[in-house]
């Protein structure tokens, strides 16, 4: 396995899928709870996205909110015990507390983003039977969870959590480029423009192209897709195709790995919490640089298959990346806000920052 940055073979060319994700697969003969109506399935393949409304109950999502609150509490205690903050801010609720921690310790949102262990409430959403019935309509009866998932810690007015235009495939290795990876973007409150809801560029998948991205935006670890490149390579008309997509609590945004998307800045006073979860066929490559495998949820050959959560949760993708590619890594500072990953080496670095410099150091260490 090699990485472009190691051999100065940066991705600077458009990569085309042989079969753009525009063909609706055969639909299940059986009607099942959670399935999308035909017009929503058609929109997903025609335009590259669809909005699913009023899907989850308040009770289902409350479990997720409670899990996030526990993660924030654990972070607050860790910062407090280390003398990084003077107050625990226990009187603040789920949508304010991380923001208060961020005000006192800049980078608290990044630390929480880095140090995520998937709680059971998220697992239950990911393999929810109604969700899998829906995903079956998109990729068929054999369904696995893709190894990349994230809890988005979008605190107010923080550039560190403002994600620029990109295609998900730009973060994956090329062995994922030939198959569909649907993404669910699920907010834990009403997501509106003021608090940083999503934008999508509809029809951006129709060319089958993974456009040329660059790295990295500002002082972040995010790859970037310029609007000019979207127009040239993906045929996007910014005036017609770029859409702002509010999502009511209980619903979610569904899009594919070629659909350009970004988040708006959070200009509210609340943390805009969300998770993104992905699925694909277990018969395809995972597309994550051999760092981690996915988790099988359904098999047409074994209707009684159960997810192997112990195996999946035993893998820390960031830890493996560090161990594999930085032989001299020492015990990491638990409050370090640097993030590196293999995607940084796939694209031309046009903006150096602490994250790109850390990545280059990792590659330099490996090569010595």
Task: Characterise the protein shown here.
Helix 2 packs antiparallel against helix 5. With 368 residues, the chain is of the alpha+beta class. It is globular and about 60 Å long. The protein has one domain: Jelly Rolls (Sandwich). The strands form four sheets. Strands 2, 3, 4, 5, 11, 13 and 14 form a seven-stranded antiparallel β-sheet that branches. A hairpin with a 7-residue loop joins strand 8 and strand 9. Helices cover 29% and strands 15% of the residues. It is built from eleven helices and 15 strands. Its cofactor is Fe cation.
- Tell me the number of structural domains: 1
What's the pLDDT, averaged over the residues? 91
What would the principal axes of the Cα set say about the shape? globular
| Quantity of strands, as a count | 15
Distance between the termini: 17 Å
Individual helix count:
11
Write the CATH architecture name.
Sandwich
Highest CATH level, the class: Mainly Beta
Radius of gyration, in Å, reads 20 Å
Beta fraction: 5-15%
The computed structural class is alpha+beta
Write the element-wise H/E pattern from the N-terminal end onward. Answer: EHEHHHHHEEEEEEEHHEEEEEHHEH
| CATH H-level superfamily | q2cbj1_9rhob like domain
InterPro entries: Phytyl_CoA_dOase-like
Cofactor: Fe cation
Biased composition (Basic and acidic residues): 1-16
Region (Disordered): 1-37
Entry summary:
This protein is of the alpha+beta class and 368 residues long. Helix content is 29%, strand content 15%.
What topology emerges from the helices and strands here?
Elements: E1 15-16, H1 38-47, E2 49-52, H2 58-81, H3 97-104, H4 108-114, H5 120-126, H6 129-139, E3 143-145, E4 150-154, E5 183-187, E6 198-201, E7 209-210, E8 214-215, E9 223-224, H7 227-234, H8 238-241, E10 242-245, E11 252-255, E12 261-263, E13 272-280, E14 295-298, H9 309-313, H10 317-325, E15 348-349, H11 354-367
Parallel strand pairs: 8-15
Antiparallel strand pairs: 1-7, 2-11, 3-13, 3-14, 4-13, 5-11, 5-13, 6-10, 6-12, 8-9
Helix pairs in contact: 2-5
Region (Disordered): 1-37
Pfam family, one: PhyH
Cofactor: Fe cation
């Amino acid at each position: 396995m090699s990485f472009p940055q190691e051999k100065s073979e940066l991705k600077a060319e458009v990569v085309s899928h042989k079969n753009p994700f525009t063909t609706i697969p055969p639909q299940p003969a059986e009607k099942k709870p959670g399935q999308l109506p035909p017009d929503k399935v058609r929109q997903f393949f025609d335009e590259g996205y669809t909005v699913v409304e009023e899907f989850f109950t308040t009770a289902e999502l409350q479990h997720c909110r409670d899990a996030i609150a526990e993660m924030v509490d654990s972070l607050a205690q860790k910062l407090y015990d280390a003398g990084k903050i003077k107050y625990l801010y226990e009187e603040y609720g789920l949508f304010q507390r991380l923001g208060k921690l961020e005000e006192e310790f800049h980078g608290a949102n990044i630390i929480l983003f880095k140090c995520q262990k998937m709680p059971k409430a998220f697992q239950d959403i990911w393999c929810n039977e109604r969700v899998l019935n829906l995903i079956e309509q998109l990729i068929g009866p054999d369904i696995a969870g893709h190894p990349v998932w994230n809890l988005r810690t979008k605190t107010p007015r923080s550039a560190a959590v403002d994600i620029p235009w990109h295609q998900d495939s730009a973060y994956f290795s090329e062995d994922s480029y030939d198959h569909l990876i649907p993404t669910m973007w699920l907010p834990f409150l009403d997501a509106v423009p003021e608090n940083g809801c999503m934008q999508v560029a509809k029809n951006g998948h129709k060319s089958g192209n993974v456009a040329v991205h660059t790295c990295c935006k500002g002082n972040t670890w995010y790859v970037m897709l310029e609007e000019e490149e979207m127009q040239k390579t993906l045929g996007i008309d910014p005036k017609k195709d770029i859409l702002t997509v509010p999502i009511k609590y209980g619903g979610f945004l569904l899009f594919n790995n070629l659909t350009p998307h970004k988040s708006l800045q959070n200009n509210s006073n609340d943390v805009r919490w969300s998770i993104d979860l992905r699925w694909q066929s277990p018969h395809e490559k995972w597309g994550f640089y051999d760092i981690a495998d996915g988790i099988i949820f359904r098999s047409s050959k074994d209707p009684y298959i159960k997810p192997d959560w112990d195996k999946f949760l035993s893998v820390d993708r960031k830890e493996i990346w560090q161990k594999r590619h930085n032989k001299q890594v020492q015990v990491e500072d638990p409050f370090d806000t640097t993030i590196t990953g293999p995607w940084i080496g796939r694209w031309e670095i046009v903006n150096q920052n602490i994250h790109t410099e850390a990545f280059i150091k990792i590659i330099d260490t490996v090569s010595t």
